[in-house]
Design a protein that fits this description.
alpha+beta; DUF1684; DUF1684 domain-containing protein
């Protein structure tokens, strides 16, 4: 198993490197479809793109084209012409230069001064024009022609670290048998692009047993170079993308193959809305939850921009966090929700924009997953296990904002104080070393908790935030106390109250008396009015401010 895991990690690292290439899938920032005879441009475009009509293509001289050497592209679409704007410097991309020097039957390129022209065959893409750090790709999908933009400085590429995966297990490796079709079969299938269908060629079927089910998938690719299957399973839309792809490899002479679902991967459409990935045929369904291979990616692109992934960790079993997390549903955060025992399967903390620890509302009833705690007569503060230790240390090391709710605030405070103590020790001794989860001596920290003084005790209904988040102005106004660790506290929080029932003192302080809700703070200058007692802060009232901070 050790050798297998080593090979899997090498494969995974190569997969990440492939995704993160300069003009790879993560660099895509847009896709514009062209219509024959229509000039198209946009903000930041290098010029005007035009898909020529057949008449225009017939009349236009083709200077410096690969067709001069006899190339002929089989396509139903015409040439695409780019007329550069004034003072725009552009040139053919490396792939287009290669086409100019080595003619292909699938692509043609022509250059005439500040006019560049190209065309490609059905299902073909060509890295065509390079302008500074932006590559313009010409593609044809079933006769629909488009320009896809790749930016070497794209936010998604810059933020990319990893793709989350399920734990590696031999349970998801199956033996199968390939049965070739007498002749390849062409199927009309949907794609990730709305309304776009394409032809997909299948060369046979693969039958195998998995998790107690007999499964048969139609496969593409080629016997000589390797078979490929697109498939649905019961994790789609929950922990995985809408569908995934499995490279099966080359069958042996008897038709035997190995299906390793630990190497199931996401199509580019899981990362970007500007992909045209082919969907599985309807019958390619594995009727079980295939908890193997790649999970849904954390960093994704939408037409509105890059998403904001946030990790939510339930530090105790049986917590009901749905009502707490509902507050973020409409604020543009992508929540990955795990228990402490599931942390081994999440990507590095740097892949998230923020970390949220959720504990029970009352610290006196908290208990740790490791079984450690105080004596039965006093508060039982949760002592984190090894995975949560690593999570906290990693998040602090990369300066990710952390929010700890309820009893989890104590866990967070201990982690910050311990990491700071280790850093101070390194400074005093002159020995600089990285702090790791194994450096955290939680038992000694708990002893320090007992002697820390009453001012460090945490009441129930508390939210703790890291120093950087506490300094954010919309959050800072609710900080009631700062612990010696630097962790900011928001005390007296009602985690489930309805914000509609609350009064915002800042919004009502200057309103006329008759327009202010009962109990609101009197306006400045009004005589005879006693200030109302402060009303409790709710998690719902803070959620939007936290979301705004994490997004920015």
């Amino acid at each position: 198993m050790d050798q297998y895991r080593a090979e899997w990690h090498a494969w995974h690292d190569a997969r990440l490197s492939d995704l993160a290439t300069t003009f790879g899938w993560l660099s895509i920032t847009g896709l514009t479809w062209l219509e024959p005879g229509v000039d198209v441009t946009w903000d930041g475009a290098p010029g005007v793109f035009r898909l020529e009509t057949p008449e225009e293509s017939a009349e236009a001289p083709v200077v410096g084209s690969t067709s001069d050497t006899g190339s002929s592209v089989a396509t139903s679409a015409g040439w695409v012409r780019l007329t550069l704007h004034d003072r725009v410097s552009a040139g053919p991309a490396p792939e287009a230069l290669d086409v100019l020097g080595h003619p292909r039957p699938t692509a043609e390129v022509a250059i005439d001064g500040d006019v560049m022209r190209a065309r490609v065959g059905k299902g073909v893409s060509l890295g065509w024009v390079l302008v500074d750090h932006v590559l313009y790709e010409l593609l044809d999908r079933d006769g629909h022609v488009g320009i896809r933009r790749h930016d070497a400085k794209a936010p998604l590429l810059a933020h990319f670290l990893d793709v989350p995966t399920f734990p590696v297990s031999f349970d998801w490796v199956a033996s199968g048998h390939f049965e070739p079709f007498p002749e390849p079969r062409t199927r009309r299938i949907s794609t990730a692009a709305p309304g776009l269908q394409v032809d997909d060629v299948h060369v046979g079927t693969v039958t195998f047993e998995l998790a107690g089910h007999t499964c048969t998938l139609q496969v593409g690719g080629a016997v000589e170079t390797g078979l490929v299957a697109n498939f649905h399973d019961c994790t789609n839309g929950r922990t995985t993308a809408a569908w995934r792809r499995l490279n099966i490899g080359i069958p042996d002479p008897a038709g035997n193959v190995i299906l390793d679902f630990n190497r199931a991967i996401n199509y580019p459409c899981a990362f970007t809305p500007y992909a045209t990935c082919p969907a599985p045929v309807p019958e390619n369904v594995v009727p079980t939850a295939v908890e193997a291979g790649e999970r849904s990616p954390l960093q994704t692109l939408t037409p509105e921009g890059i998403n904001t992934p946030v990790l939510v960790v339930e530090t105790e079993p049986g917590l009901r966090t749905a009502q707490v997390l509902e507050a973020w549903d409409t604020h543009g955060l992508d929540i990955t929700r795990v228990t402490e025992g599931e942390l081994s399967g999440v990507p590095p903390m740097a892949a998230f924009e923020g970390i949220v620890l959720v504990g029970s509302a009352d610290d006196r009833t908290a208990h740790g997953t490791s079984g450690a705690g105080a004596d039965a007569s006093g508060p039982r503060h949760p002592i984190p296990g090894e995975e949560l230790e690593g999570c906290l240390v990693d998040a602090l090391a990369v300066r990710r904002p952390i929010v700890a709710i309820g009893a989890a605030a104590r866990v967070f405070d201990r982690a910050v104080r311990t990491v700071k103590a280790e850093a101070a020790d390194c400074t005093e001794t002159g020995v600089l070393r990285a702090v790791t989860a194994g450096d955290l001596e939680w038992d000694s920290v708990r002893e320090a908790d007992a002697s820390a003084g009453a001012d460090e005790e945490l009441p129930s209904g508390v939210i703790a935030v890291s120093e950087d988040a506490a300094a954010h102005r919309p959050i800072r106004k609710d900080i009631t106390r700062t612990l010696s660790s630097g962790v900011g506290l928001i005390e007296g929080v009602d985690l489930l109250a309805d914000t509609a029932e609350l009064t915002d003192p800042e919004a009502t302080a200057d309103a006329p008396a008759e327009d202010r809700p009962a109990g609101a703070t009197p306006a400045r200058g009004e005589s005879g009015a006693e200030p109302a007692a402060p009303r409790p802060v709710t998690w719902l009232s803070l959620a939007e401010r936290f979301a705004d901070y994490l997004r920015n």
